[in-house]
Amino acid sequence: MIHKKAFILRIVAIAAIIGGIVATPAIVDAQSPYGAGTYGTCDYNACGITFGAQASVSVNVSPSSGATSCSVTNAEVQVATKSSTGYTLSMTNTDTNTSLMSGGNSIPTKSGTSASPTAMTANTWGYRVDGINGFGAGPTSVVTNGTVPVLTFAAIPASSATPDIIATTTTPADPYISTYVWYGLCANASQPNGEYSDSVTYTVVVN
Amino acid sequence: MLKNIVATAVVAVIGLFFISPSAQAAEPLQLITVTPSSTSLSADPGGSTKGSMDVINTGTSAFTVALSSSPYHVDATTYDPRFTQLPGTVDPSKWVRFATPTSATIEPNKLFTADYVLEVPPGTAPGGYYAVIFAETNTEKSSESGVTSRSRVGNILYITVKGVVKTAGTAQATRLPAVISYTRVELKVTVGNQGGVHFQTTVTTTIKDIFGNTAFTHTAKAYVLPQTQREITTEWSPNRPINIYRIEQGVLLPNGVRDLPQRWVLIVKPWVIIMLIVMIIVLVIVSILGIQNRGKKRRQHDS
To answer: Model confidence over B142-188: pLDDT tens digits?
Structure first.
C-alpha cells in the first residue's frame, strides 16, 4: 500500500513538472515575436531591393619552386529587402569567357559545379560559398600562398549558362543579409606571370 | 651547384611576376537600390502601358548603370529565377521600350528614374507574360589581378495581356510529423496554377495552443505563374518548450479561399526531451534503489 502511494506521488510529481513547463510563460525572443509574423514586410509592387558589393577583390598568388601555391580571398555581398517572400541572389561570369585573362595568357576556371564542387588544382580558379548547394559548411578562411585548400570549389558559370544561386531567403532581408563569396586561385611555376583578371555578375531579384 | 642556383633564380623571377600578397584594403561597397522590385502591368493586345522604376545610389561613390530587359521564368517549386526564354514561348522583354536613356551615372544619394513603355504586339494571345528590367553597374574590368564584380538588380514585370483567360489554382500543405522537436518549424504550402495567367495567392497561417490561445499568425503573399507550382514557406519558432498546437491555414486562390485541413502537432524542444530522459533515468534509479532497500529490510525482518 505504501509502495503504491509512493508510486502515485512520483507520477503526480512528474505531471506537475511537465505541467509547470507547459504553463511557464513564453520567453519571447527577437527572432520570433509572439503573435506577429508580417511586421516590417511589404507586398509586391511596393518593395525596393538593395544590393551591395565591392567593385573588385584582389586574388594574388606567388608560386614557389615545384609546388602549387593557392590563395583564397572573399568578397562580401549584401542584400536588403522588405519583400515578404525574400530574395534570390545568383552569379555568373560577366561574359562567356570564364578564364582569368592576362593578355594572351589565361587561367581557366576549374571543373566542378556548385552542386558537386571539387578540390582546387594547379593553374585554375573557382569560387565557393559556405553552407549552400554542395559546398558544405566550411568555414572557409583567407589563405595567402598556401597549400591546396581542403575545401571544395566550383567553376564560375559562363554568362550563357544557368546562374549559380548563392543565396536565397523566404523572409524579408531587413536588415541586410551578407553572403561571402570565396574566390580561390592556385598556380604553379608553369603558369606565365602576369596580372590576371576577370569579371563576375551578381544578380538579385525578389522571390 | 650551378644548376641549383639557376633553378632558384628562375623560380624567383617567375614568382616576382605575380603580385606579392598584400593586405586587402576594405573597399566600400557599391550600393544600388531598385524600386519597385516587381511591377504588375496590363494592356490589351496591340496596346501599351507606361511604367517607371527608380535606381538609387545608396553608396558613397558614383557608378554608372545600364538598363536592359530580359525574359523571366522560374524553375522548380522553389521558384529559382531564370532570365532566359523558354523554347517555344514569346519573349515579352522585347516589348519593353525605354523612354529615358538606358545608361546613367548616378552620384551618391541620388536617384535615376527610368521610364519605359510596354508595347504589346497586336494579336498577342491573352494571358500572363513575364520579363525583368535590370539595372546593372557597369564596372570596368580591373587592370590589377583579381575579380571585378557587376551588380545587377531586377524589377520583375508581371504582364497581363487582357482577354478571356482560364484561371484555376490548387493548394496543398506539406505533411508534418505529429511530434516536432525543432526550434524552428517550416510550414510549407504548395500552390499550383493551372490557368493561363498569374495570380497573387495569400497564405494565412494561424496557430493556436491547446488552450485556444493564438500563438502565431502570419500572412504570406506571392505570385504564382501559370502552369507552375510554388512552394510557400512560413517559418514559425514556437516559444513554449512543450505544448500541443493546432495549425490552421487558408490559401487565397482565383476561385476563393481554400481552408486546408487542420493539423495538430506536439512541439517539444530538444532540451525538454533531454530533461525528461534524465528525469526518467533518475526515477528508474531511485525505484531500483528503493526496491533493493525494501528487499534488504524484508530479509532483515525475516531473519
So the answer is: 667 889 999 999 999 999 999 999 999 999 998 888 888 878 889 99
pLDDT at residue number B184: 84
Chain B residue numbers with beta carbons less than 8 Å from the beta carbon of A163 are 83
Which of B29, B158, B233 comes nearest A53 by C-beta? B29
Out of A37, A44, A197, closest to residue B144 by CB: A197
Please, which residues bridge with residue A206 across strands? A87
Give me A69's grid cell. 601555391
CB of A163 closer than 8 Å to CB of A154: no
| CATH class for the region spanning B29-140+149-161 | mainly beta
Local structure of A127: helix, strand or coil: strand
- d(Cα B138, Cα A98) in Å, to the nearest integer? 18
Domain B29-140+149-161 and domain B169-270 have a common topology: yes
Q: For chain B, what are the domain ranges?
A: 29-140+149-161, 169-270
CATH class of segment(s) B169-270: mainly beta
C-alpha cell of residue A17: 513538472
pLDDT-derived band at B259, boundaries 50, 70, 90: very high
The class level of CATH for A49-206 reads mainly beta
CB-CB under 8 Å, B35 with A60: no
Express each pLDDT in B183-207 by its tens digit. Answer: 888 999 999 999 999 999 999 999 9
Q: How many CB pairs under 8 A join A and B?
A: 262
